[in-house]
Fold this protein.
Amino acid sequence: MNRKTVKKVLTFVLAAVMSFTLLSACTSGKTNNGGSSNQTTTQPTPTQAAVSDGPVLDLEAAKAERMKISVIGIDWGYGPVSGSSMEKYWEDLLNVDLEIEWVNYEDYPNKVNTLMATNNLPDVVQIMKTNSSFYYPAFTQAIDAGNFVDMTKYIFGKGGLKEINSVMSKWDDSMWQQATYKGGIYILPRSKAEIAQQSGINVRRDLMKKYGYEKEPTTMDELADWLIGLSNAATQGEGQKIYALDWYGDFMSDRVKAFAVAFTGQMDWGIDENGEFQYIQFNPKYIDFLNWMKKLYDAGVLDKEFALGNADTSKWKGGRSVAFLTAWYNWNQSADRVSNKIFDSSTPDTYEAWCLLPVKGPEGYAISANSYDIDSCIAINSKCDEKKIQKIMQVFNGTEKDYPGYDLIMTDGVEGMHYDLLADGTRDTSKYGTARQEGYVGAWNQIFLKVDADQITAKFKRPGAKGASEESVKRAEDIRAAIVKALDETGLAHANVNLHSETYNANWSTLIDDVDANCAKYVMGLMSADEFNKFINGLVSSDTYKAIQAEFKAAYEANNK
């Protein structure tokens, strides 16, 4: 079911925001249908809160007063180090004393949830998405307990961020719909995600040219035949097995489920024709995707141990796979060296990566892209008084307009600290390895507001970026345009954003424990179609799944009263 159909199933009203009266109501450009880890449902959106005549923010006064702000943020495995030169630079620029604890992403959920449960929180908390939502149970419980600030008035009030911030002023209602919980906004987005960023197909272009497969497939059926043919031709010509397709993760991973959307016409969670919430792998059409995979397996062009694939065993990185499922915004033209080499260092430089335009399934659905808007977000401890809230708004929502050079710091760091500017405009980072690691730029744009990224511009076009061929840049632009067009035409979106089910939280992982294994068994011919369908139907008819469906629907209705 697409977004247009869902609009007929689901209707919405704007909610009152705490003690503030909404002056106008808007509908979002995004509704939903169903899906992959990226879909949105239209939520009540605060658009303009009635407040006192005076502005809700006085950022100049906040800028003038220096104070300490404590923060907990996610370390994605690269740093930064507390007290780094980058941290000190930010402190001087923003006139603040930062007390930051960076916690490894694997430990972060437990750490933050413990702090929430004990109400022992720092001033600012980076919120990590859990089960497709920033508003996960431990966080909403803390909100309901009054432990976080409703930032609605600071965003939509007179002189609020939506009015004065050069980045936030450009965001439409869909952004704020995803940030809304029970009529309030408790997460402050850091950037608007690139819309087209889920699953894509990298291919070995050098093999395409060598074996006469330069005509690119446009449908999933054509893709299967194309992969099988090229795999067989390359295997014979190269004197070693060259597989058709490689990927990391299992059938439950976002990239694989995004690929399956071409068959289901639904993302992770969708709405079926009866108006009920439906999980993608419980969609009757999902087996069509497995049959597509099975065709490759039966042709002998999938690794017999595909279910065990990971980065360390990647056939693609070793140059032994025709294609690889990837995230489109991370695709690389290896021949141009525009990003990190995507093959093993031992592979020849003649290996050339290319990315196919999105192919479509039998009903015209393309592999799905990102339809979430929020890229990262922070929450504010309700123990902060008004002066500190004002300071947080000043520090964490700076822009290029407020601080000239801000955007450059966000992308590349500080000249002389993280790079040298060469005569040709290139930013040479070669002698700043330690400083770059300790100050890791990417972590800061998870907690500080950044300009909304144009991935193509950032990777290929910005001053000092590694050069890419005109052909490579055009392909990136064409991919994005095609995906955005497909999303617009179909209205695909995630149906369960900000919807909560206690049964889901408590029992989902157990309910689907065997789904991945049985998907693999079916593809490998170890389970018949009747056996697979019987297995899925058993899950669909279970009391647990029915309770999850009912609770999602009830949560949706409650959110939209």
In short: The two ends are 24 Å apart (CA to CA).
